[in-house]
């Protein structure tokens, strides 16, 4: 099953799907304000900072604990690990991908991202609403570990023997600028693969064939161990989603660069 779903496919699911709006903006305004201004009917708001991440340190967006995710599953009304869940946002699926990845890590098996997000829904002539659904009565307990994650040592090992993709912008990878973290640069041996190239101008993901061609050009093969990281573990999930759409499994270094640089003994590379 593709990790993506189209507007037409979402319509066909009818009322049996759980919808989650995960709109989030790194520099503001808050995603909740955008949700309150208009969202897909029936969609719940899921907050990336408090429901899809734990408190910062080390790393800006570490994994949340299972208790937090269980509460979210219950609020969304998820009653089975295979309950159909569709997540979306208003920003090229960057934060929706973090929900897709986190929900799967904690045991859900039928999570997809609305390709094109909120803009695709509106472009298809569908309406938005400001009505907020009542909290659900979910029964699923979140259990961690259903997809692979890496720590710093694991990421370094993949950089040495496989392909470690850095999902950040080229200038951050090169160490020319660093707006978020105290040290600029990248993990030695990593390969730059900015997430912006995963999508078209409309915010839709490129076709599986196009994505596979992209990652193959970066050195990924069917026999390669692949892992991804970014600044804090958000856009890394977007890269993992693009890889999965292309039929390539990967692990995510959740702590990412924001955790890597908390240890001054870890090496830092700069340049392209």
From TrEMBL:
Entry protein name: Thiosulfate/3-mercaptopyruvate sulfurtransferase
Keywords: Pyruvate, Repeat, Transferase
Domain (Rhodanese): residue spans on this chain: 13-130, 158-269
GO terms for MF: thiosulfate-cyanide sulfurtransferase activity
Source species of the chain: Kribbella jejuensis
SMART domains in alphabetical order: RHOD
InterPro entries, A to Z: Rhodanese-like_dom, Rhodanese-like_dom_sf, Thiosulphate_STrfase_CS, TST/MPST-like
Domain of life: Bacteria
Stored Pfam families: Rhodanese
């Amino acid at each position: 099953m593709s990790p993506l779903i189209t507007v037409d496919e979402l319509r066909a699911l009818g009322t049996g799907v759980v919808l989650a709006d995960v709109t989030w903006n790194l520099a503001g305004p808050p995603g909740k304000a955008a949700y309150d201004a208009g969202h897909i009917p029936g969609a719940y708001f899921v907050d990336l900072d408090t429901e899809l991440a734990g408190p910062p340190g080390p790393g800006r967006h570490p994994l949340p604990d299972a208790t937090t995710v269980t509460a979210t599953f219950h609020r969304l009304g998820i009653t089975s690990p295979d309950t159909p869940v569709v997540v979306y946002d208003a920003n090229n699926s960057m934060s929706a991908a973090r929900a897709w990845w986190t929900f799967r890590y904690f045991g859900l098996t039928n999570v997809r991202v609305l390709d094109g997000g909120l803009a695709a829904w509106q472009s298809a002539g569908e309406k938005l609403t400001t009505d907020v659904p009542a909290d659900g009565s979910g029964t699923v307990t979140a259990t961690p570990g259903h997809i692979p994650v890496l720590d710093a040592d694991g990421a370094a090992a993949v950089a040495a023997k496989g392909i470690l993709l850095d999902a950040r912008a080229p200038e951050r990878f090169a160490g020319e600028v660093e707006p978020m973290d105290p040290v600029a640069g990248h993990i030695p041996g990593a390969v730059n693969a900015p997430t912006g190239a995963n999508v078209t101008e409309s915010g839709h993901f490129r076709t599986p064939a196009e994505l596979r061609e992209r990652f193959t050009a970066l050195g990924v093969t069917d026999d390669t161990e692949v892992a991804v990281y970014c600044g804090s573990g958000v856009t890394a999930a977007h890269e993992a989603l693009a890889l999965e759409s292309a039929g390539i499994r990967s692990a995510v270094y959740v702590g990412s660069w924001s955790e890597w640089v908390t240890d001054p003994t870890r090496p830092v590379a700069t340049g392209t």
